[in-house]
C-alpha cells in the first residue's frame, strides 16, 4: 500500500515533511510501519500550491529515496498547502501517468487503497465519465478513475458528496457485474484553499490515517506519524471526512450508504 502526507497552514518547506523528520515520507518509502508493505518504491509525486491557482506537479517513477532531484526541490520549495505521495503499485504499471498526485484544474488528489475486482469494473466505470473527463484520463489506476468520477459528481461544489456518489457508482457497477463491492479509500485532495481527507472502506478495513494540528492553524495529515511523538498524532476514525480550512479542522462522517452525522474531534 502507498504512503502519503499533506500539509495546510503557514508556508512550510517541503523538506520539513518529505525529507527531514525521523520518519519522513522518504523514510517511509523504504521502511513503512503501518502499511501492508514496508517498501513503497514504485514512484512518487508532489503537488504544491504557490502563486498560481493550479498546483505545481512533480512525479517520477524512481523510488523516492533514489531520486537525486527530490531533496534539492524539497529544500527550496515552500508552500502553504501541498500533497506528497510514495507509491506501492497494486493496479497499473510503474509509469509517470500512474504516480500520484493527480491534478484536474485547481484540484489535486492522492490515494492509498484500491477498488476490488477493478479489471471487471474499469470499463463500466469509464462509461460513467463524460467525453471530456474520459479524455483526461492519462493512466490506468483505479485511483485516477475515482478522482475523475468525483469531479464529474460535483467535486467543486460538494467535495464530500462527490466522493460518496463516486463510491456508490462503484457499488452499482459491482452489483451489475456480479462481484463484491470493495472500496478502500484513504485519500487527500485540495483545491489550493481547503485540504480534505477521507478514511473509509466498505469492509471496515481502511488504510491508516493520522492527523496533527499545529500552531497558527496548521494541519498535517499523514498515512503514519512522521516522528516518535505518538501522543501528538491523532488517529482519524474509520468512515471520516476531514476538512482543514481557515476556520480550523472539522471531522464529519463519510457515509456513501447511510446518514451523515457530525463527529467530535
Descriptive overview:
The strands form two sheets. A seven-stranded antiparallel β-sheet has the order 3-2-4-1-10-9-11. Strands 5-6-7-8-12-13-14 form a seven-stranded antiparallel β-sheet. β9 (210-213) and β10 (219-222) form a beta hairpin. By secondary structure, it is α+β, with helices and mostly antiparallel strands. Helices cover 23% and strands 31% of the residues.
Structure, briefly:
With 265 residues, the protein is an alpha+beta fold.
Average pLDDT confidence is 91
N-end to C-end Cα span: 27 Å
Structural class: alpha+beta
User: Sheet bearing the most strands, described?
Assistant: 7 strands, antiparallel
Instruction: Choose one word for the global shape.
Output: globular
The beta-strand count equals 14
Helix proportion of residues, in percent? 10-25%
Question: Over the alpha carbons, how many angstroms does the gyration radius reach?
Answer: 17 Å
The strands making up the biggest β-sheet line up spatially as 3-2-4-1-10-9-11
Series of H and E elements: EHHEEHEEEHHHHEEEEEEEE
- Into which percentage range does the β-strand content fall? 25-35%
Poorly predicted runs: none
Number of helices: 7
What characteristics describe this protein?
single chain; seven-stranded antiparallel β-sheet; 7 helices; 265 residues; globular; alpha+beta
Task: List strands and helices in order, with pairings.
Layout: E1 3-13, H1 15-18, H2 25-30, E2 44-48, E3 56-60, H3 70-76, E4 78-86, E5 102-104, E6 107-115, H4 118-126, H5 131-136, H6 142-152, H7 159-177, E7 183-190, E8 195-201, E9 210-213, E10 219-222, E11 234-235, E12 240-245, E13 248-253, E14 262-263
Antiparallel strand pairs: 1-4, 1-10, 2-3, 2-4, 5-6, 6-7, 7-8, 8-12, 9-10, 9-11, 12-13, 13-14
Helix pairs in contact: 4-7, 6-7
Amino acid at each position: 500500500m502507498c504512503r502519503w502526507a499533506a500539509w495546510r497552514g503557514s508556508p512550510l518547506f517541503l523538506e520539513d515533511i518529505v525529507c527531514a523528520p525521523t520518519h519522513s515520507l522518504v523514510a517511509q518509502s523504504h521502511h513503512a510501519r503501518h502499511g501492508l508493505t514496508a517498501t513503497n518504491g514504485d514512484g512518487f509525486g508532489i503537488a504544491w500550491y504557490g502563486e498560481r491557482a493550479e498546483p505545481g506537479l512533480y512525479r517520477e517513477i524512481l523510488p523516492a529515496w533514489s531520486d537525486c532531484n527530490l531533496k534539492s526541490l524539497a529544500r527550496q520549495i515552500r508552500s502553504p498547502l501541498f500533497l506528497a505521495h510514495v507509491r506501492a503499485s497494486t493496479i497499473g504499471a510503474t509509469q509517470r501517468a500512474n504516480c500520484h498526485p493527480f491534478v484536474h484544474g485547481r484540484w489535486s488528489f492522492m490515494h492509498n487503497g484500491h477498488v476490488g475486482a477493478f479489471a471487471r469494473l474499469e470499463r463500466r466505470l469509464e462509461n460513467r465519465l463524460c467525453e471530456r473527463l474520459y479524455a483526461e484520463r492519462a493512466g490506468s489506476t483505479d485511483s485516477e478513475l475515482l478522482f475523475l468520477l468525483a469531479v464529474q459528481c460535483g467535486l467543486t461544489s460538494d467535495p464530500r458528496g462527490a466522493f460518496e456518489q463516486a463510491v456508490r457508482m462503484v457499488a452499482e457497477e459491482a452489483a451489475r457485474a456480479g462481484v463484491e463491492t470493495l472500496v478502500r479509500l484513504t485519500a487527500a485532495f485540495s483545491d489550493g484553499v481547503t485540504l480534505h481527507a477521507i478514511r473509509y472502506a466498505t469492509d471496515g478495513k481502511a488504510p491508516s490515517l493520522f492527523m496533527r494540528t499545529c500552531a497558527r492553524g496548521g494541519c498535517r495529515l499523514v498515512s503514519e506519524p512522521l516522528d516518535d511523538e505518538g501522543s501528538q498524532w491523532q488517529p482519524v476514525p474509520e468512515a471520516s471526512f476531514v476538512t482543514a480550512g481557515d476556520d480550523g479542522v472539522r471531522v464529519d462522517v463519510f457515509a456513501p450508504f447511510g446518514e451523515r452525522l457530525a463527529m467530535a474531534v
